[in-house]
Design brief:
Length: about 260
């Protein structure tokens, strides 16, 4: 499969997708989104892939939706074509996705990082929703996911003023899982991804589904949902192997079915 705006490779059980529009700081245009969606389809369909890493460049994860492409859009066209909806494919990925963020993650770039399950940030990372400065507002979930991640006070301030957060503030606020030196970002992301990819696949996918459910339902419903998935895992060979290996004091050999 060929891509012009992405680099896609597999490394063991990890799929690595690197946004690659260096001259535009990885601004997200329709071609990139179409290619990203295609890459995600392929990685999800591959039973040998257990985790996906989404990365940008040292300078920018992504500096937002491509303003040059959006400049002349009209309301009837955005409404008719349901502009932006196709960007949500990433949030529907059922396998765990790690965003490795260095440099700018602005607008749609920040939203894309927040569609991932874990954000690992380089100490150079900057997060922001500056759309208001362009006369628009976040359109790919930013006002919702940022608010859930960092709370109303910071989300409201960032979306209303367009100010950015550095990596340290993003970690304190709960937006990112961990901050690492920029030079170590990809190695750390791969280490985390390898660890997840080595887990029983069904369990990893169910963990993702269950944690995400916490944002969409009541506590009682969420706990009921978790319990059903928990019970279902007793139907897997990996549960027998994982518990058997523990009791027999040996390393498990998971089938990762
Ligand atoms: N769109 C198009 N081109 C861009 C973008 C962008 N978002 N960001 C940077 N570029 C281009 C610049 O135009 C420039 O190109 P050229 O060399 O041809 O002039 C090149 O990238 C390098 O950029 P700069 O010269 O500006 O680099 P600086 O280091 O001076 O500044 C900044 C870096 C601060 C990141 C600056 O480029 C900037 O402010 N960019 C725009 C950030 C922004 O406003 N982002 C939000 C865009 S709106 C949005 O994302 C809407 C989301 C709606 C949902 C989207 C669904 C995912």
């Amino acid at each position: 499969m060929s891509y012009e705006t992405l680099l896609v490779e597999t490394n063991g059980r990890v799929g690595v997708v690197t946004l690659h529009r260096p001259k535009a700081l990885n601004a997200l245009n329709s071609q990139l989104i179409e290619e990203l969606n295609r890459a995600l389809d392929a990685l999800e369909a591959d039973p040998g892939i257990g985790c996906i890493v989404l990365a940008g460049s040292e300078r920018a994860f992504a500096a937002g939706a491509d303003v040059k492409e959006m400049q002349f859009l009209t309301f009837p066209a955005t409404y008719r074509d349901d502009f932006i909806t196709s960007w949500e494919r990433l949030s529907r990925c059922r396998k765990p996705v790690i965003a490795a963020v260095a440099g700018y993650a602005l607008g749609g770039g920040c939203e894309m990082a927040m569609m991932c399950d874990i954000i690992l940030a380089a100490d150079t990372a900057r997060f922001g929703q500056p759309e208001i400065q362009l006369g628009i507002m976040p359109g790919a979930g930013g006002s919702q996911r940022l608010t859930r991640a960092v709370g109303k006070a910071k989300a409201m301030e960032m979306c209303l003023t367009g100010r950015t957060m550095d990596a340290a503030e993003a970690e304190r606020a709960g937006l990112v899982a961990r901050v690492v030196p920029a030079a170590d970002l990809m190695a750390e992301a791969m280490k985390t991804a390898d660890r997840i990819a080595d887990m029983p696949l069904a369990a990893a996918m169910m963990v993702k589904e269950s944690v995400n459910r916490a944002f969409e339902t009541t506590l009682a419903e969420g706990i009921r949902f978790e319990r059903r998935l928990f019970q279902a895992l007793f139907a897997t060979a990996d549960q027998k192997e994982g518990m058997g290996a523990f009791v027999e004091k040996r390393q498990p050999g998971f089938a990762r079915e």
